[in-house]
Specification:
Layout (H helix, E strand, L loop, with lengths): L1 H24 L6 H22 L1
Length: 54
């Protein structure tokens, strides 16, 4: 029975890698302006946090 469990480990790793490769290879819709706005919001938030620590 222990050998069966050891055989499941590479099987699950292979299935996980296959799923990950499938997911990464799919085209994902990107909106550059939304990403830029999100970056500016995060940057401003971190700037306020750092200014508050001083």
């Amino acid at each position: 029975m222990a050998a069966m469990i050891w055989l499941l480990i590479p099987l699950m790793a292979g299935l996980g890698a296959s799923f990950w490769a499938w997911y990464v290879s799919r085209p994902h819709p990107t909106d550059v302006w939304t990403d830029v706005e999100r970056h500016h919001r995060v940057r401003a938030t971190y700037g306020r946090m750092l200014a508050g620590q001083r």
